[in-house]
Amino acid sequence: MPQVTMYSTRICPYCTRARTLLKRKGVVFEEIPIDQDPGQMAVMVERSGRHTVPQIFIGDRHIGGFDDMALLDDRGELDPLLDR
What we know:
- The protein is built from four helices and four strands, in the order βαβαββαα.
- The protein is of the alpha+beta class.
- The chain has one domain (9-82): Glutaredoxin.
- A four-stranded mixed beta sheet has the order 2-1-3-4, with helices on both faces.
- Helix 1 (13-24) runs parallel beside helix 3.
- The protein is globular and about 35 Å long.
């Protein structure tokens, strides 16, 4: 299974939704809280080109935010990315 990384904050409702979806699928993921480590925000923006959270990566592939991941899931495209 590829490494899943999510940049997040504690107060973001979309981050909570993304966590829930990933956990429901049994995905172990690395969560990088940019509100606790502001230097990570610069890393997130450099990697994703976006300033909003969550930003989700599967391996080196940028998936986007929660809505993007949920759309992939609805289309049946998320599980293959997760090697499921």
